[in-house]
Amino acid sequence: MTEFTGSAASKADFIWKNAEDLWGDFKHTDFGKVILPFTLLRRLECALESTREAVRDAYNNFKDAEIGLEPILRQTSGYPFYNTSEYSLGTLGSSKTRRNLEDYITLFSDNARAIFEEFEFSNTIIRLEKAGLLYTMCKNFAGVDLHPDTVPDRVMSNIYEHLIRRFGAEVNEGAEDFMIMSPSFFTYECHLQKAA
User: Fold this and answer.
1) pLDDT at res. 18
2) 49 pLDDT above the threshold of 90
3) Helix axes 97-106, 134-142, angle to 10 degrees
4) Are 164 and 175 spatial neighbours (Cβ–Cβ below 8 Å)?
5) Residue 27: inside a domain
6) In 3-state terms, what secondary structure has residue 151?
7) What's the sign of the alpha-carbon dihedral 156, 46, 192, 168?
8) Within-domain flag for 28
9) pLDDT above 80 (res 179)
10) 3 state SS of 181
11) Fewer CB atoms inside 10 Å of the end CB: C or N, the chain?
12) Could you give the number of structural domains in the chain?
């Protein structure tokens, strides 16, 4: 996929195009269960990109020490969340994609991992693997630049809102009802605020 440009709505439409790969294997009412968490995963990944190696180094240096790792890793990442995995969406590989993606998600800090758990993303990963689409979706989203320097927080918030409205329309629910069903998705702004 190529980098998108334009308004938040057009960027959201660009992201939603990933749903085209789901036709035939997923009901259209399930598209959002794939698109929303993958969008969030890519956003978190892009935010952490510049400190990935430093966080892994800090983890390896202090993991056996009798001190709390959380404050160190958060300070190192520059955000109130982090990930210590060696993987990214672009490096999961095509042969053990599910195992590697599950490892990647598991090694997020608790506050970030909780969002994926609320979306029951592990079930979505299994369904995508069974349909032979997991590697495709990972590769597609790995090509989307959602770095905060490229997509500011306000624009990203509008993209999420547009995607959620789109999903709400697909499942014949009001966007407000779906937003209530997915409260943690709207907490991403808190997660993306730079650590003080």
Assistant:
1) 81
2) yes
3) 60
4) yes
5) yes
6) coil
7) positive
8) yes
9) no
10) helix
11) C
12) 1
Which two structure tokens, joined as six digits, stand for 75? Answer: 């300070």
3 is a domain residue: no
Q: Is residue 135 part of a domain?
A: yes
| 3 state SS of 49 | helix
Q: Distance between alpha carbon 141 and the CA centroid of its chain, in Å?
A: 9
Ramachandran assignment for 120, one of left (phi > 0), alpha (psi -120 to 50 degrees), beta (any other)? left
Sorted by sequence, the CB contacts under 8 Å of residue 158 that are 6+ apart come out as: 8, 9, 12
Nearest-10 crossing angle of helices 121-130, 110-118: 60
The Cα–Cα gap between 133 and 126 comes to 10
Q: Which residues contact 134 (CB under 8 A, 6 or more apart)?
A: 97, 98, 101, 125, 128
The Cβ-side half-sphere exposure at 106, using a 13 Å CA radius, reads 8
- Domain containing residue 89: 8-192
Q: Enter the pTM of the model.
A: 0.84
Which amino acid, one-letter code, is at 147?
H
Supply 170's token pair: 């697909």
Q: What percent of the chain has pLDDT over 70?
A: 82
Cα–Cα distances (Å) from 133 to 25, 55, 69, in that order, read: 9, 30, 36
Q: What is the DSSP letter of 92?
A: S
Among 16-25, 41-50, 54-63, 102-111, name the one with the lowest average pLDDT: 16-25
Return the pLDDT at 109.
94
pLDDT value, residue 190? 46
